[in-house]
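I had to read the description of the data format several times before I understood it. Each protein is reduced to its one-letter sequence and a matching series of backbone shape codes. The format is easy to grasp once an entry is in front of the reader. For illustration, here is how one protein appears when written out as sequence plus structure tokens:
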Amino acid sequence: MKVFLSVAAVLFLTVGCSSVKCPDADSKAIQSENISRGEEIVQAVVDTDFQKFSRAAQDLPEFPERERGEFQESCKRLQEKFGIPESFRYLGELETPLLHNQLYAVRFIRRGNDGGKVANEQLFQIIFAKDNNQLKLVGMRFI
């Protein structure tokens, strides 16, 4: 869960106003590559797959110290709060002067008080920063 919250302070300090990204030809390739990478991260969270997550989130500055147990615990807390993650969909990318923010809707299913299924979608933000013309993962969180 620390990964999801680790960029909160940086995000609030660096994000001024956001605008919908209208990519040029050069940035389309970078965006496409990072959408695939973002989808790997979200899929790993949905599947509670630490190996997939560790491959996709390798840019996180504190990631080498993170352990499998912390990832599993974060996923467990998400399930307790929202339900079992079922699927996700890419919503788009917001661009700020320093950051690229990918937004995903993650669909959770839980049992309601009447025993029926209740669907609930939560926004998941993945944050990249441009470094030497490449986007590097700097954080992620549910918002």
About this structure: The helical segments are 2-5, 8-14, 25-47, 50-56, 68-82. The first helix runs from residue 2 to 5.
